[in-house]
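tokens incoming
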């Protein structure tokens, strides 16, 4: 599984960071899913190998502009590129109202259908190519959600010893069984794939949260998670100076939660523009990192725009060069 950040700034873009968006995909796969779509996201996509034609779905965490103002332009561009396949959009109901208003007032015509699902009505996991999607409500100024991506279609290997014991000779029959087909031997015995496949590995799970001032709300969704991606808009000292957290989390809030539930990999994002990219200045991203390290002992990452992470089969996250 791979995560590619397309925007990591909170509220407004900076010279170094665009507003929120991220992509998730299977390794070596062409299809992908977009989580949030702040203004300028399509411009960020152009600087990657991602294709709007191969986009399976867009998941919006909440209706604030830095998470959704890029939707109309991105959808329009996909249409102008000749997209025909339906596109799934999952999000709070106001997202559909927003898109309906844009289409009605600007004459936006799409060459493909939009299949919208209200996240508030998702009581069962939503199936996408390569993933099962679950959601959980968060705490913010508007309805905000987190999404869990649970890997499906885990490849299973053949058990050579079992095949030999059943009398299945090495050759085309092995390929058929691996593809999920039954095989009938010369003696009339039927062999099914479940009889000769080794158990599959554990499905990996990535949780990507929207804006949220209460990380504890993610406890159920994070059960069995390998990675938590969560906003860390502020540090505690800035919140004390402001007198409010504006319904966001601090780095310490998120790090304490991640440590308590034992998430192995924590990625912080959605940083207030007051934190400079240059770590030699203050306040800077280093302040957020230092606060998180006070509470968390796992693998910690602070996302940059175009930071590309890969999750190994063993559940270890690493940054790709």
């Amino acid at each position: 599984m791979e995560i590619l950040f397309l925007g990591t700034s909170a509220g407004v873009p900076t010279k170094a960071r665009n507003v929120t968006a991220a992509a998730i995909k299977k390794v070596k796969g062409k299809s992908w899913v977009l989580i949030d779509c702040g203004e300028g996201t399509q411009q960020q996509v152009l600087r990657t190998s991602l294709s709007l034609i191969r986009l399976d779905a867009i998941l919006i965490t909440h209706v604030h502009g830095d998470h959704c103002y890029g939707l109309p332009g991105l959808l329009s561009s996909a249409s102008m590129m000749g997209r025909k396949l339906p596109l799934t959009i999952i999000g709070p109901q106001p997202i559909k109202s927003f898109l309906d208003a844009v289409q009605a007032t600007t004459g936006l015509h799409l060459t493909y259908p939009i299949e919208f699902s209200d996240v508030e009505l998702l009581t069962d996991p939503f199936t996408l190519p390569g993933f099962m999607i679950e959601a959980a409500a968060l705490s913010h100024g508007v309805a905000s959600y987190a999404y869990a991506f649970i890997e499906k279609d885990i490849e299973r290997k053949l058990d050579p010893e079992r095949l030999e014991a059943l009398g299945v000779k090495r050759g085309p029959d092995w390929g058929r069984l691996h593809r999920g087909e039954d095989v009938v031997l010369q003696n009339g015995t039927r062999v099914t794939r479940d009889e000769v496949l080794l158990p599959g590995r554990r499905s990996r799970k990535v949780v990507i949260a929207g804006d949220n001032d209460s990380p504890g709300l993610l406890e159920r969704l994070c059960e069995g998670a390998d990675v938590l991606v969560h906003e860390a808009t502020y540090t505690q000292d800035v919140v004390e100076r402001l007198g409010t957290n504006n319904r966001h989390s601090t780095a310490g809030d998120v790090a304490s939660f991640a440590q308590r539930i034992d998430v192995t990999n924590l990625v912080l994002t959605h940083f207030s523009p007051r934190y400079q990219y240059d770590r030699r200045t203050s306040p800077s991203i280093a302040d957020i990192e230092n606060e998180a390290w006070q509470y968390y002992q796992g693998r910690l990452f602070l996302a940059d725009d175009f930071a590309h992470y890969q999750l190994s089969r063993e559940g270890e996250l690493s940054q790709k060069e």
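note: The chain has a mean pLDDT of 94.
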